[in-house]
C-alpha cells in the first residue's frame, strides 16, 4: 500500500514540476459534482429521481469537488456507512474506512465499493483522492450501469428545497408600519401568528430588507422590534443560520436583549428570510427603513390591495344596481303583460267556442 501511495505522491510532484501553472486545487481547474445535495448517506432516493454517475468526466486531470447544496461546505466521500437506496441513488458507492489522505497535496488511489443488499462490495471502482488543504478532489471512474452513484456527506440528509425558487417561499407583504421610521407608541402589532416559512419581503412589489442595525423600542409598529444581528450573507454563503435581536429595554436605549434563530439567504438581487412566530407579544420583525405608520392599511389583504381592483369591483356593483332598477321599472310598467295575454287568448277562444256550441244547441229550439 505505501508503495502505491509513494508512487502517487511522486507522480503528483512530477505533474506539478512539468506544468507548474496547473494546480487542480485552484478554482477553475476542477468540476463541481452535480446533485451534491442528495448524495448524503442519510438521504433516501425518491421514487422519481435517482442519481447515476455513468457519465462523469474521467481521464487525466478530471477532478471533482463536492459542495453541499444548502451551505458552501465541502463534502467528503462517505466511508463505510452507505446503505442501498440511500445517497440519492439505488446502489451507492463508498470508500473503505480511513481512505482519505491526511497530507496536503497527496494523491491516493482507492477502490470504492458498491453496496447491493447484504453484499457490501459487489463491484469496485478506482477513485483517486487529492487533499487540497480544507477540501478533497476526486478523480472518479464511471460505473457500469445506472443507477449507481458516489456517496458524499456522512449522515447528511437530503437538501432542503431552495428558497430562492418562488415555489419554496411566501411573499411577506410589508406595510409602512413595519419600517424602522414608524415610531408610534400606540401600535402594538405582533408577529406571534406568523406562519413559520421562508419569506421574500416586499413593499409595493419592491424588495425590502430586515433592519440590520439596532432598532429602538416603540418602532416598526410594535413595542419590541426585531432586527438582524450580524452581516448579511453574500451569494456564496448559501443558507446561513443567524440571530435576530429583540429590543426589550425599557430604558429606551437600543439593545439586543433577546435572540431569535432565523435563517437568511442571498438570492442575488434580494434576500429571503426563514422566520417563525415571535415567542411573545408585542414583538415584530422590522422591514424597510422609510415608511409611515398609517400607509398601506390594506397591505395584508391582497384582494383590496390594488386600487385597480377597487375600481373594477365598484363598476360591477354599479352595473348590477342599474340592472335591478331597470328590472323594477319593467315590472312596474307591466311590460311582461303581452306574454301573459298570449297565454290567456286560447282560453278566451275556447270560451267563445263553447258559447258558439251553446248557441248551436240552443238554435234548434
Ligand atoms: C484520473 O483517472 C483516470 C482514469 O479514469 C486516469 O487516466 C487519469 O490519469 C487520472 N487523473 C489524474 C490527474 O491522476
Ligand atoms: C473507522 O475507523 C475508526 C478509527 O480509525 C473507527 O473508530 C471506526 O469504528 C471505524 N468505522 C467503521 C465503520 O469501521
Ligand atoms: C454517522 O452516524 C453513525 C451512527 O449514528 C455514527 O456512528 C457516525 O459517527 C456518524 N458519522 C458522522 C461523520 O457524523
Ligand atoms: C448578495 O451578495 C452579493 C455578493 O455575493 C452582493 O453583491 C449583493 O448585494 C447581495 N444581495 C443583497 C440583496 O444584499
Ligand atoms: C427554518 O429555520 C428553523 C430554525 O430557525 C428550522 O428549524 C426550519 O427547518 C427552517 N425551515 C426551512 C424550511 O428550512
Automatic annotation (TrEMBL):
<protein>
    <recommendedName>
        <fullName>UMOD/GP2/OIT3-like D8C domain-containing protein</fullName>
    </recommendedName>
</protein>
<keyword id="KW-0732">Signal</keyword>
<feature type="domain" description="UMOD/GP2/OIT3-like D8C">
    <location>
        <begin position="199"/>
        <end position="286"/>
    </location>
</feature>
<keyword id="KW-1133">Transmembrane helix</keyword>
<dbReference type="Pfam" id="PF23283">
    <property type="entry name" value="D8C_UMOD"/>
</dbReference>
<keyword id="KW-1015">Disulfide bond</keyword>
<keyword id="KW-0812">Transmembrane</keyword>
<dbReference type="InterPro" id="IPR057774">
    <property type="entry name" value="D8C_UMOD/GP2/OIT3-like"/>
</dbReference>
<keyword id="KW-0472">Membrane</keyword>
<feature type="domain" description="UMOD/GP2/OIT3-like D8C">
    <location>
        <begin position="77"/>
        <end position="151"/>
    </location>
</feature>
<feature type="transmembrane region" description="Helical">
    <location>
        <begin position="310"/>
        <end position="331"/>
    </location>
</feature>
<feature type="signal peptide">
    <location>
        <begin position="1"/>
        <end position="21"/>
    </location>
</feature>
